[in-house]
Write a structure and sequence with these properties.
By secondary structure, the protein is α+β, with helices and mostly antiparallel strands. It contains 6 helices and 5 strands; from the N terminus they run αβαβααβααββ. It has 2 domains: 1-63, no CATH class; 72-163, no CATH class. Strands 3-4-5 form a 3-stranded mixed beta sheet, covered by helices on one side. The protein has a two-stranded antiparallel sheet with strand order 1-2.
């Protein structure tokens, strides 16, 4: 286990892929800080240029606001309902034939705008993998409109939740 009193090694930040983007990047390795690891899933770091209003006296650490009470069922149900709406939209559509598609997949993109207008995509002990597993269970037996359905989070990656192939 790394010694928490050690300095950050030279070149560490350069090795952090994509942290210097406007979207920032998560830090998920709390092996050196087990108490933090018990209570945090991740800590997001952002370049100072993204927060130009920082100056002495202003707080530089913020906690994600929950926006009120919610359950993880709501975020799972929202994803399921969106996918079911797409299945209904394309069920009697001839998109595959009109465009001579050999394969017709659906990618449900969970972007920053979704985070702003929906329940948070995670809670303590429940995140994107758990959401995907619940959506996958709900789609068993769904009409075979799409060949595959994926959930995509730009910070986590894509997870296939349905396959008709």
């Amino acid at each position: 286990m790394p010694d928490p009193s050690m300095d950050i090694p030279k070149g560490f930040w350069e090795s952090m892929r994509n942290w210097e983007t406007a979207q920032g990047a998560p830090v998920r390795d709390f092996a050196a800080f087990p108490t933090l690891g018990k209570y945090l899933d991740d800590v997001w770091i952002f370049p100072r240029e993204r927060l130009p209003y920082l100056h002495p006296g202003l707080p530089w650490v913020w906690f994600e606001e929950s926006g009120g009470e919610y359950t993880t069922d709501w975020m799972v149900q929202a994803a399921i309902e969106r996918i079911q709406a797409k299945i209904a939209k394309y069920e009697n559509d001839d998109t595959r034939i009109r465009h001579s598609l050999g394969e017709f997949d659906l990618v449900c993109f969970y972007c920053d705008e979704a985070v702003l207008y929906n329940t948070p995509p995670h809670s303590v002990g429940f995140g994107f993998p758990e959401t995907a597993a619940n959506v996958e269970r709900a789609l068993r037996g769904a009409p075979k409109v799409f060949d595959r359905i994926y959930l995509f989070d730009p910070y986590v990656g894509a997870v296939q939740v349905y396959s008709a192939i």
